[in-house]
Amino acid sequence: MDVVTRAAIAACLVAAACSPEIASGSYYCGAQGLCPADQVCNPADGTCVLDGEQSAFACPTLEAEPDNTPAQAHAVPGVNCLDTAASDVDCIDPGDPADWLSFALPTACTGAVSLQIKVSFDAAFQPLQLALTGSDGTALATSQPCASTGGAGNLASACLTATGSGGDDFDLEVSPTGSDCGGACNFNTYTVTIVGGAP
User: Fold this and answer.
1) Is 197 exposed, middle or buried (CB count within 10 Å of its CB: 0-12, 13-18, 19+)?
2) Rounded to an integer, what distance in angstroms lies between the CA atom of residue 196 and that of residue 165?
3) Contacts of 82 (CB under 8 A, 6+ apart)
4) Which terminus, N or C, of the chain has the lesser number of Cβ atoms within 10 Å?
5) Alpha carbon of 21 to those of 9, 42, 137, 141, 153: distances in Å?
6) 8 phi and psi, to 5 degrees?
7) Residues with Cβ within 8 Å of residue 10, at least 6 apart in sequence
8) What is the spatial distance between Cα 159 and Cα 149, in angstroms, rounded to a whole number?
9) What is the pLDDT of residues 141-163, one digit of tens each?
């Protein structure tokens, strides 16, 4: 619950001894789908709604499946060494073990290229993590929670850094980690951003 909402409720209670009523769908669920006692987290959009108004989670039609192994990885176009971001929007289905993405640094890149990779996801549902490997399967880096999430207040994120060279190919695993709310939030939508530039 944000500071403004808390302040409004407190003022209401002090001034008029009223019972606060929070409109259904008026704010985002907390971590693990946390909502007020009279509301539940709506899997469809990650907002708190009255019980009975929630809808089932569904991955968008743009989802790239199958992509559960490196051999099935779908390509992220536009990765470069010019400090501009390439991105991929996708989804972890309920119970999906992982999504795999692939990308390559252009051969025109010279010298070492610093890679900054971030996955942003809805904090109400199961957290996600990243693992970067070379095209030969060599493990290169794993993610940690980002120092700063940025963006909407309902987002969490994980980040990793690595180094490559022009012509290098990579595979990137996006997988669930941490609590899945006892199976009730074992899914998420996400955006991966990849920025290549000078070290």
Assistant:
1) middle
2) 10
3) 196, 197
4) C
5) 9, 18, 53, 47, 22
6) -65, -40
7) none
8) 10
9) 999 999 875 566 789 999 999 99
